[in-house]
Amino acid sequence: MNKTSLNLAVLAALPLFYSTVSVAETSSLDAIETIQVTGSRINRTDMETASPVTVISAELIAQSGYASVEEILSKQPVAAGMNLGATSNNGSGGSATVNLRGMGTNRTLVLLNGRRMVASGTGADSSVDLNTIPVAMIKSIEILKDGASAVYGSDAIAGVVNIITKQDFEGTKIAADVSETAQGDGTSGGVSILHGVEFAGGNLVIGAQFSERGKIIQADRDHVEPGCSSFIPEGTLGGKTPDGQGGFKKRQHCYDFTQDSYAQTPNELFSAFSSFTTELDADTRINADLMYTRRESNQQMAPQPANIDLLSAKLADKYSQLFADTDGNVAQELNYRRRMTDAGPRISEQVTDTYRFSLGITGELESDASWDVSVTYGRNDSEDKVQNSIHAGNMEKSIYANQDLWFSGDALSRDFLASQGTMYTETNKGGNEQFIMAAGLSGVTSFDLGYAVGIENRFESGFYTPDLITQAGESTAAQQDPTSGNYSVQSVYGEVSMPVNDQLSLEAATRFDNYSTFGTAVTWKVGATYRFNDEFMMRSVAATGFRAPNVAELYGGNSGSFDYLDDPWGNAPDAQILVNYTGDLNLQPEESESFTFGMVWEITDGLSSTLDYWSFDITDAISRLNVQNQMNNCFAGQQQACDSINITPAGDLSDMTSVLTNVGSQQTSGIDWNIGYRQDSYRITLDTTYLIEFKEDGINYEGTIDGNMGGYSKLKANFTVDYNLTDAVTLAYNAQYIQGMDGNNDGDKYTTDDVVYHNVSAAYEVNDQWRINGGVKNLLDTDPEYVPDGNDMNTIPSLYDVVGRTFYLSTSYRF
């Protein structure tokens, strides 16, 4: 490799990359002839590309105590908005996702060794469940921070996360880790084994990992205020609660749902993986990867809130007449509400099995060009259950038949509820499947023109089948229809890179995709790098992109969700309001344009920096209108806003519906600044993202925080210091900074404070084989910021730490 000062500056400036390849270690790269960088299919002889890439090493993952891929990615300044993770209790299905730039989890493409991962979760999913990728098998994670549809196709609008696994490994490595919060809960841990051996003329790597994450109850954290729900265990009729003497009185208390809800959700993960690489002959190489992950996860929420409209004519006069007006008239229906603590908390359980197999063959031609063919198959099967669900129809029948019992305000036994058919276990099934065949040709011509061409055929399918009671609308939870569908896509792509002279290099790519659902799409990318001297280089990329509608968006039936919303009319008796979500078979793909412009500069010996401006513009976005915003506009008298979500100007929210459409838009821009300084005994890095603009559907979100949209902090940064105390001991300090944001809760404006999370760690190499690592996350036990309209615990759990100070310890032994 050409190791000029600028090459070394690129390596040094890539945040977190130093743990994998330091400047002092670059001499070991001499043996490498070509490498492939995320964002290009051309095997290059250097790392100078126009696209900004962040690389996170396995060493840094272990040092920081990260237990999952989601935790690693969510801490990066490039992440924003909302994603699913360990602290997502309501509706997560146990999945974990990544959200680059806050542009949506389905606009970030996840690759494994440069090839697509199957969508995974609880069925007909639009994104990859990062839980399916065991940390033990990771060599590094590469984050491409610009659009890459011209290279990889759909979904790569916001960027690409490419997870590189350990291959060509020899020996045996055993590792174990454990963590626990300062309050003595949330105990988590895992063990893994990795073994590599020469086999059949090649290298065989096999491994397995088991991990378990402990639970934390929301009410066990001081920052979580007691909840207040109008659904109370005694039940209410017509808004009044039993007085214990056969009558009813005004409700004067509410139910604290935080006593039963998880702040950290438990799960168990088992993964087995294998990689085999060998040379068939001097010019041909074969590689096979196999991975299997089983996830058993749980979420727990407060007991089911049952909401039944009872016919007054079927009620005994001693009850119905209590609600008569001055003329003795009783409303045709009386609303009965009850928090079903008698049945117990809602316990969601998921069991998912994810399989992935990839086989690739690469070869060299006499012209020094290389070819490759590959087959990738992925499948995800799931079964999720919700214990202590309530059958609304049977509950209504039981109330009519046992009015004195239901209206007494006394507790009901589980045996009674079971005998009435009131409680049951909801069982849903789902899955995803993916099959890809691809072939490509890459090389460099005699006049130094790099090129890559290829074809690809991909098939995707998914389904989700809710419990029959849920489908029939007989559950007290929201009604939901089944989802099932598939599509196929055939693609052709081409890419070139060319040095114009010693200073200027150009690159370009284009891709043609033909979808069975909507037709064709063409995308392109052009980029350039200009080297002023050995210390300073500038780079820029302009690209178009697209995102095809997925199975859930095309074929998804009605799915109800009780969202936390503010009713401006004051008609809704509770903060959780039913919204019906539906898909659309006629959806068209989203289209995007992206642009990056930046520089790489070796300022002085050991001090390097990168600075990149980026912008994204999405049109025809597949999205749902902001329901809260449409409610507010309807209340203000805008009939179009009322019609858009199927509500009335008078505030009738009984059939509020949010339909997927292509009328959305999104524009965002910002600046990434990375600076690194290294000397023999210490390294310092600062990774910063400044958000200039984030606008969705004409609404500005930069510098704001919202329970449905998440947080769009103007400034996020990670500051890291590594210090080699001795040859065997390394100390590390990390600070994660999140600038405060503005919020609006039903007209009441508020501002969150700036937050800094301090993390410390130490690593001790006992000898060449044995390593011990330990540390503290959130050293100062900083509480999350209060967000009145937060999606859970009155905050944004995907943005702020809701768990608190956590201690961790890990060890590994290699022989």
From TrEMBL:
A Pfam family assignment: TonB_dep_Rec_b-barrel
PANTHER family in the cross-refs: PTHR47234, TONB-DEPENDENT RECEPTOR
SUPFAM superfamilies the record matches: Porins (SSF56935)
Main location: membrane
UniProt KW Signal keyword: yes
Motif (TonB box): 34-40
Residue stretches making up the TonB-dependent receptor-like beta-barrel domain: 316-779
Stated family: Belongs to the TonB-dependent receptor family.
Protein's name in the database: TonB-dependent receptor
Membrane topology note: Multi-pass membrane protein
InterPro entries: Beta-barrel_TonB, Beta-barrel_TonB_sf, Plug_dom, Plug_dom_sf, TonB-dep_rcpt-like, TonB_box_CS
Species this chain originates from: Pseudoalteromonas tunicata D2
PROSITE patterns noted in UniProt: TONB_DEPENDENT_REC_1 (PS00430), TONB_DEPENDENT_REC_3 (PS52016)
